[in-house]
Amino acid sequence: MSHSTVPRSRAEAKKKSPTQTPAASGGTTGPGDQKASGKLSLRLRFRRDRVLLLMTLPVVLLVLVFNYIPILGNVIAFQEYDPYISDNGVISILNSPFVGLENFQRIFEDSAFWNAVQNTLILFFLQLVLFFPIPILVALLINSVVRPRVRAVAQAVLYLPHFFSWVLVIAVFQQLFGGAGVLSQLLRENGYDGINIMTNPDTFPLLITAQSVWKDAGWGIIVFLAALASVSPDLYEAAAMDGAGRWRRMWHVTLPALRPVIALLLVLRVGDALTVGFEQILLQRDAVGPGAGEVLDTFVWWNGVRNQDFSYAAAAGLVKGVISLGLVLAANKVAHLMGEQGVYKK
Amino acid sequence: MTPNAASASSGPSRRSFLASTAVATAAVAGGMPLLSACGGSDSGSRDGTTSDKDAKKILPAYVASNVVTPDIPSKNGSSMGFTAKLDVDTLKTSVAKKLGKGGKVTIMSPFWGSPPKQNNPYYTSMNDLIGVDVQWRNQDGNTYDQKLGAVLASSDVPDVVVVPGWNMMGKIPSAIISKFADLGPYLSGDKVKEYPNLAAIPSDAWQRSIFGGKLMGLPMPAPSVPTIAPLYRQDIFDKEGYEVPQSADEFMALCKDITNARAKRWACGDMKWTAFNTFSVLGGGEKPLWWNLVDGKLINRIETQEYLEAIEWTRKLFAAGVVHPDFELGKSQATDPAPKFAAGEFLIWNNNIVNWYGQQASQATQNPDFKVWGMDIWGHDGGDPTLYAANPAGIFAFVNKKASESVIRDVLAVANVTAAPYGTKEWMMTNYGVEGTHYTIKDGIPVKNDKGNNEVLNAYVMVASPAATTAHPDLPDYTKAMVEWERRMGGFTKKSAFWGLQITEPSRYTNLANDFEQLEDDIIRGRKKISDMQQAVSDWKNKGGDKLRDWYKKILDENGSAAN
């Protein structure tokens, strides 16, 4: 933004005429004005911020059109929706009979749904424990590399797998760890039994997590690296002067700098807890069967898109949405208790 | 044969299961008015079937085509075979004048393999021949069911949508009835004579194209023999002295003999479909064929002992470690089994019979020793097998209801070319492409080159086809063996009660049996137990299976049984 948000100097601040409205001064006000703005009426605040509001309008419209209006479609969760009545989805919805909470009742009685919930939660916790810390560790590692060329190469190598499609990643894993893959043949050539890691339902969550780490851990370090870059070198120098060693510098300087970012990402991740990698799992669902491979997203897909039971799928999606909302609120609360900003604050 | 192009490189996909199928006459006796709502109070208005008598009123007239007499005529529901040398210079013309009016037609169709670029020489020369600008929207055939529902529910349905019978699950049949055009006004009775190649499509294939009492589909006729053949590497069998097995036990013993995992060799792929055939399980990909009348009561295949035995036998194969590990992946198979079959990693692969030719042709140049052959289906106890007939048409092309008359006429022009019989210029172009570009003549025999194999694949053959034909001028021995296999197996084939009918189940029951295929695969791979299947069957009964049985019984009472 071109406007300065904080008056650069006392003199500049003084220049503002007291009768001038804040909006007329162009842009938001400095922190000093915050108290005053709380007392302003809503209308005045609108007038003051109208330029900013105008600037956000396109985005608000987009969100409205593509996120909020489609929410209305969730009404089919309370219907026996038949999309083929008409070419127009809205007309189909209007003409489909309401069935009340029948779909939800079916969901709560459906063992396949609870199986999907269970698999989803297992995967979430596993990824939280095994996946989440890895980008942080890698970021710290990369950050400690001094030579820029080595660092650039390492970063490039780490980012690259993110751009591979899941189909490719899974095919590579299959070639390496499948029943006729490199590992199994190596074992057989040495007189052991082959192992088929790709189709073992018991270790499936670990396999999924390992694939995610391989593919996306490198990509995940970007945010942490940005946070690390913002740490002033002065702090490290000062700490070193005070006799802090490598580990103490990390503990007292680096990690506190990362803490808000970690908290933010953790809250976001928890909000996404029930979304554990649709494409990756759909591709491998049949390899281990739905008993281990069905998660909420594939459950919704299977019932909605494949079986055309759209109402049932919509109901399952709604239940997922409600649980996710609860999780975000809870995680945010925890972040606040820890003294962090979290995703939002009142 | 037409479907060969479609599945030359696919695994034993769902399509292979059904792509093949019947001929012979519709043996549906009796006759009642249109069963538009025969399920009673708990069914919508789109379910039911169309009786023989009503069908007669809308079926196109049949005018046989006599372009080339088959060397091996159809018998026992087999396709007809052409083994004599094809003289490319004296091909006949079956479409005298271009019927296309130059309009643009978009077609969505399943595609097995890698689709070629739009506007490649095959597509453009076919379009020139037809006089219609066909734009293909090819979709992956193995996951076609997952896209179909979404496309049909949208407002952007292409002009033509190709729907295989095995993808007609859930609400798809009701979508077909409400979203696609009635072709009756263009094809019923003598009107079809304007399109002579369509008039030569057998009537029972047309009867299968009737949805909701209207003639809607352009069919791909198929032999009624269940054409999943256990293909095997005859070259390796001969070298190692293996004998073709005659019973379930012999097969198991042979598999143990063959398998040597350390040397990267396994006996077979997933043999489930062969097990269904050898154990006489009612079948076919379409649910109405799962029912049959046993001692006056309708029985679904999932309730039968044979079904459980077939699953258990296949499970034992997996448990014995004789199945190539890639097949443990089930339908999500990440890799194409064909190269592993060619490399001898496994020797027996149940597959659509069209791949008997397809596998052989694809290896012809780089692998001269490679020889694939088909085993006869054995009875599990060593006796003759009892097989159940598949339907006489398994894949249909539908025209969008919103299409204008000129678009419909253009689509029919496309179909009239793609349905041209063997021995015509149109057949040659549809199945082999352009001479010099896609195939060359060697010793009077057309041989596809790489460009031909890449481009002349699926697409046009999916729209409408001539009566089931097996004709591979480049491999006449294989053509003969395949047709004879069908004729022999056809001798063991019986029709089940609802054979030949197009039946739309009431929407509340359509998803009842969807999960059984998954459960079968889970049991076979040791993740679930046979007792889970028994539980699932009793759940199925309680959740509506018994009501569905009553519903089918009504259809049977009104139409009579097709069983023989």
Account of the 3D structure:
Chain A: It comes from Streptomyces dysideae. Chain A: Pfam families: BPD_transp_1. Chain A: It is found in: Cell membrane. The complex is a heterodimer of chains A (346) and B (564). Helix content of chain A is 68%, strand content 0%. Chain A is mostly helical and 346 residues long. Chain A has three domains: 1-48, no CATH class; 53-100, no CATH class; 111-337, MetI-like (MetI-like fold, Orthogonal Bundle). In chain A, helix 8 (133-143) crosses helix 12 (204-229). Chain A is flat, with a radius of gyration of 26 Å. Chain B has 564 residues and is α/β, with parallel strands linked by helices. Chain B is built from 21 helices and 19 strands. Mean pLDDT of chain B is 85; it is low at 1-45. The interface between A and B is large, with 41 and 42 residues.
Question: What's the layout of helices and strands?
Answer:
The complex is a heterodimer of chains A (346) and B (564).
Chain A: H1 10-15, H2 34-39, H3 42-48, H4 50-71, H5 89-95, H6 102-109, H7 111-130, H8 133-143, H9 148-159, H10 166-177, H11 182-189, H12 204-229, H13 233-241, H14 246-271, H15 278-288, H16 290-293, H17 296-306, H18 310-337
Helix pairs in contact in A: 6-18, 7-12, 8-12, 9-12, 12-14, 14-18, 17-18
Chain B: H1 4-7, H2 14-18, H3 52-58, E1 80-82, E2 104-111, H4 121-130, E3 133-140, H5 144-153, E4 160-164, H6 172-179, H7 184-187, H8 196-199, H9 203-207, E5 210-211, E6 214-215, E7 217-221, E8 228-233, H10 234-240, H11 248-258, E9 266-268, H12 272-278, E10 291-294, E11 297-300, H13 305-319, H14 337-342, E12 346-352, H15 354-363, E13 372-374, E14 387-388, E15 393-399, H16 405-418, H17 425-432, E16 439-442, E17 445-448, H18 450-455, E18 469-471, H19 476-490, E19 493-494, H20 516-524, H21 530-559
Parallel strand pairs in B: 1-18, 2-3, 2-4, 9-12, 14-19
Antiparallel strand pairs in B: 4-15, 5-6, 7-15, 8-12, 8-13, 10-11, 16-17
Helix pairs in contact in B: 5-6, 12-13, 20-21
